[in-house]
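Hi D.,

Good news: the full-assembly prediction came through. Inputs first.
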Amino acid sequence: MKKHTLARGAALAGLVLAMSACDRGLTDVNQNPNAPTDVGPAYLLPQAITASVRTVFGAGMMLSHTSIWPQQTVQIQYPVEEIGQVRPGTMQGWWDNFYAGYLTDVQVIIEKGKESEKGNVEGVGLIWKSWLYSQVTDLYGDVPYSEALEGAANTTPVYDTQQEVYEGMLKDLAAGAALLGTDGDFGSGDVLYGNDFGKWKKFANSLRMRFAMRLSEVDAATARAAFTAAYSAGGFTSNNDNAMLEYPGAPYRNPLFENALCGSGNRDDHGMSATMVDTLKSLNDPRLALYAEPAAHDGEYRGLGNGIELPPLSLDWYSRIGNFWRCDGAFTPSAVMTYSEVLFLEAEAANRGWIAGDAEALYTAAIRANMRQYDPWSPANAPAQADVDAYLAQPRVTYAGGAAGLNQIHIQKWIALFMQGNEAWANWRRVQVPDLEPGPDLVVSRIPVRMMYPDNEQSLNKARLMEAVARQGGGLDLVTPVWWDVH
Amino acid sequence: MLAGEGELADAEARARAEEIRDQSRKFWTGVAFAAPLFALSMARDFMLLGMWAHAPGMSWLMFALATPVQLYVGSDYYVGAWKSLRNRAANMDVLVAATRQLTSDILLDAAAGANTRLNEFQFGEVSTHALTVPGVFSIDNTAEPMGSQDTYSQKQVRSVYGSVSLNYRGWLNLDLTGRNDWSSTLPENNRSFFYPSISSAFVFTDAFGLTSDLLSSGKVRASWTRVGNDTDPYQLVSTLAAQTPYGAAPMFTVPNQLYNASLRPEEVTSWEVGTDLGFLNERLGFVLTYYNSTTRNLIMPVNISGTSGYTSQIMNAGEVLNKGVELLLRTTPLRQDNGFRWDMTLNWSKNDNEVVELYGDLQNLVLGGMWSLNIEARPGEPYGVMFGNGYLRCGNDLITAGSCSSAQKGMLMLDSRGRPRIDPVRRILGKYTPDWNGGIQNRFSYGPLDLNLLFDGQWGGNVFSVTNWFGTQAGVLERTLRGREKDICDPGIVEDGVLPDGSVNGDGVSDVNVCPQDYFHYWWNNQEAGVYDASYLKFREARLSWRLPDSFMERMGFSGGEVSLIGRNLFLWTKTPNIDPETAYDASNVQGLESGQFPTARSFGFSFTIRP
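Then the structure:
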């Protein structure tokens, strides 16, 4: 009996001990050793820049949406977006990536810059935030801005008007530029300008010029005031200031190169638009050999018309996009913003009488700058200097002044913005130049002028979304113009 | 290659060679001792040793042969076990049990225990996508920065539990259990959860002395349980995710999921009633169970608008109800004096699943999907409904708008080219959970022969077959020959439906004819076209066995044996073309999707069994 009591007692004691220690140390077990809860802005900036640029200038967004609708390139296989059918998953994916991905990272950079009182950090954060929001609003129209990115505190932010978003971006750019040249840097994390804050400042002012000009048709007074302010502050002054994102090598190579992977036979879905090829040919443009490849069938440059479901000829009859981006483009940079675009903006402003510059000189300089902008990357078919001079001497290219001159500026800018689909499409929407003919198989009523709001917003933020849709007269479609598009 | 690198490479090669030498030594030593040991013991079993098999020293000899193998060759394993025991005890149990006859009629069985369990997970990987020198598969030979992943997680759960079981005269049982867990994966103020259960069984034929030839046994049972559940490690606090460096720049990103520092445990409450009945001296057996189970406070990622900076938030949310019936019928319809016997087993189960609520006003939770067909959880529907775009048909909205007349209700709406239009409003197209499952097994035996036939199947449920959907769009399936019997667009397809002008297509008056390529390409945004009925019946297995004669087997020194011929997956009857609808897309809760599955194989084989 005693034996049993002893055993029983020991067992019970064991249980009691076990129970009393039941809770201790369990919190430590649940500390995640794999990842940090906080990192410095130097590690967040490269992600915010590279991930967003690779999306905006990649095969998904650009070659399948924003460079086919302004008719610079065309989908030669699976012409789905070509005829105006977009995938709901894609609209959703971009929306989520911009807000929950890139903008959230930038938000943290701005906060850390403010906390640590490093003006350079906060400034760069504000500039990149504005570039990101400009992409979102030019695609979707009215979007959450003032109440966005508040996490669990506000999961149903209001949709601000595009006008409010543009006001906010212009203000942020001016504030961001003013903060630069003070304290702080990003170490190896500034993959765009390598901690050259002088160039960041010029980039901010150049973006201000771009956004100001965007408002030229809907609100000329604001546009003019904002433009002249930015112009006085000073944008890019040479091709050395260009915002070009370079690619270091696998796994980060130019996304158009990664899409095609010539030789390994990855994808062959994209080609040159007939509109672009015909325009370049008719102007004897030396950029033709750079932008396009001769068709495999007969060595001629031939584009495919946009908005067609079944190409009339077999695919070897059509030119592909130039090898500088495609087959040989592993290290070809993505042009976020160039000196050539700034000169075109200034030429347009001079033509409209907003600034005192010489529109002809600016126009010519813009074309020359564009011819030379990829020189540091030695493209095989870069335009020869003699050809550039001959090109500019032609009567059709020589600046005509007045309304005709404005038209020339827009057409040349459309050519220069090749491989910068978002900006080309936005500019066409604003001024409707070049005059584009919608393809015969388009399933929507006009060439798309916006992206549709993503489906999940209809379940997750319905009231606010529907306010925005009612205000714009649409938005769950591709054909309701955004605020600054008056057509 | 730098000078230092050369030395390093040498040292590594030397260490590797040394290890190989050590392991080889152990291996050959092991073989040297194990071979004669194996030969001796096999010889003994096959009775080749004769009287030496039971010689006094034989067992000691075998032990002596085995010892060096255990202690020298196996030393690595014992050392490893001791080290892990010393560092942490992975799973420790204490259990105290007692049995007591409380009264002459009541027997008590009680147990109490405690348990601590530690789960550790370690994952390390180095990888590369490109080799410098082809054919040399070593990470050193990488042509680009190598990818790496290093993950560690641990989870500890401590529990105490007890159970009491009372038995009255052998025919009435009452079981009570209780358990409390403390889990490291939940926050401090919410990490303890208690789960009780109570069950009882009553053999009423014994209790009331009702046993007869008709009703040979009968039992009713009932139970109620509540179970808690914790979650995975590290769900309470968000961390930043490292990305592959961009050239020389390290990168991190803020994740898209908001974690939750106030999680609570999940809770599953269920009850069950059932009966086991036997008739006609156990020639007919019948087991029936009804269950009802509700899961609450599921720890799940709830979608929130990405504009908040996060696309999902981990929360306790949701209530899911599962109720159903399970039936098992065993019977021997035929049993003859010459030994012929036919046994039949039938089982049938039906589970009704419903998502009662998600979270607040949330109307859907996207669980997964492909090609814009979502698998979602929606309140009021079974878990796992298919949600997507389907055919636009003439309905009340369109009748009111004047696009079609009430006589045309239900007909397809066509576009000007004669193709069925797609409804832009997405809707429920099906569900992946079946209505019921069942199976029937028939066994015929006569003498040494035994024939076993198994059929089983599923009724209801849908599958989204991307193989059929893409195959139709691309024109590689036989069904796409429709309309191109004479030439690529000849005679074309005249689809029955309502044209944009309100007239009916297919009535012989100004019919619109569409080229098959155009028609089938237009399936691209119509997921309904790819959703099929997944009901099936399979002839799962046929097995013919012949029991080897006992006399023959005994002479060989065995107690018995048999030879069998087996055929599996012999036939499939289903409405889904070209594929096997019994398909699992992956090991998650997202099912009902099929995309390029490997075809199910019919197999034949035989087996030969010997029992010593």
